[in-house]
Amino acid sequence: MNGQPDSAVLEMLVELACRAPSVHNSQPWRWTYSAHGLDLYTDRSRLLGVIDPTERQMVMSCGAALDHLHKAAAAFRWTADIDVLPTPGAPDHLARIRFAHDAHPRSHEFDLLAAINRRHSDRRAFGAVSAGRDLTKYVGRDTHGVELTVLSAESTQTLAKASMLSASIRKYDATYQAEIRWWAGHSFRSGGIPPEALTDHADASRVRVGRQFPEPHRVARVLAQEPVEDEATVVLLGTESDDRLDWLNCGRAMSSFLLAATADGLATCPLTHMTEQSGSRQLVESLTPRGGVAQVLIRVGTAMIGSPPPRTPRHPVASVLSVPVPARVVNRNRS
Length: 335
Ligand SMILES: Cc1cc2nc3c(=O)[nH]c(=O)nc-3n(C[C@H](O)[C@H](O)[C@H](O)COP(=O)(O)O)c2cc1C
Prior knowledge:
The chain is an alpha+beta fold. Helices cover 31% and strands 16% of the residues. The chain is built from eight helices and nine strands. The strands form two sheets. The protein has a five-stranded mixed β-sheet, with helices on one face. A four-stranded antiparallel β-sheet has the order 5-6-8-7, sandwiched between helices. Strand 1 and strand 2 (37-42) form a beta hairpin. The two termini are 32 Å apart. Flavin mononucleotide (FMN) is lined by residues 21-25, 57, 60-61, 64, 120-121, 123, 193, 197, 211, 269-273, 312.
């Protein structure tokens, strides 16, 4: 591993990468560390077969983890040189990362590192983003071809329509309902969305563009004064085409946006229910002047008063990262 981080540093970086958001907290990634560098693969055993049959959201989730890794490494002075889809014919092999210990982090990189630990998906109603904030700068300079559109307040009607359309199609879809009940609203070892991260129906109904989850037994209560309407801004990330590279890059851009917004004190929540089916996806796409393929929407705004839900759990890093076992030291003096 000449010039590469030692395994303790590497484990810390991968642990930070795994704080990334993933569809229904499925954490569909695997990492291996070898003389070639750090490799990122999808973990197909964690694919949501009904919600995500094409693997789009699985790859986007891994893209978010890749960007988290890149940002975490920079704060520890490592430049991560990323080669995407490096093995022709092996679509699960999403990236190979080589490190150089030559980064010069400034305060923004440390803010992003802190944001990795603070960010969470907030499904409660938000206050408005203050006027004059430029949300387009949150994806950074290198968007890898992903387009960000800040949707106007008038678009909310269309989004609410798309959201309702998606919910009404899903309502009687028994396989979808079974899958979402498996992943959301109950605690099981470090996977899925825990009940504390969901809202009850009263709170959820204020957010007209949110995904409908099963109502959990224990819920995050909004300690706001009075019932509030959601005043979130919604941004759309879209791509020109709709292939694996677009999904990976979209996940990276989503992560950039979420971390920069968190560092700027804003609350966020990714939304994909409106881009899972053609009808609602077309409605969303009608809102962008440039056209293109709608991938993910992000609600962004000011968090309501009240403590945020606890951090969602993650698998232990040892269960998602393989590192070579160091060669055994043989003590020649022992018989
Ligand atoms: C590709 C993708 C799609 C997601 N779709 C939704 C969604 O439709 N609705 C929602 O409330 N959260 C959605 N999320 C957020 C995840 O549920 C969340 O990241 C996961 O539960 C981990 O929690 P955390 O973000 O608080 O760390 C999505 C996240 C990703 C990466």
